[in-house]
Amino acid sequence: MKLIPELTLRRIRQRFLTLYGHNAESLVERFYMMVGRYEVGVRPVRSRDRWSENDVVLITYADMVRAEGEAPLRSLRAFCEQHLTGAIKTVHLLPFYPWSSDDGFSVKAYREVDPDYGSWEDVRALEGSFAVMFDFVLNHCSAQSSWFKDFVSGVHPW
Question: What are phi and psi of 68, to 5 degrees?
Answer without folding.
Answer: -55, 130
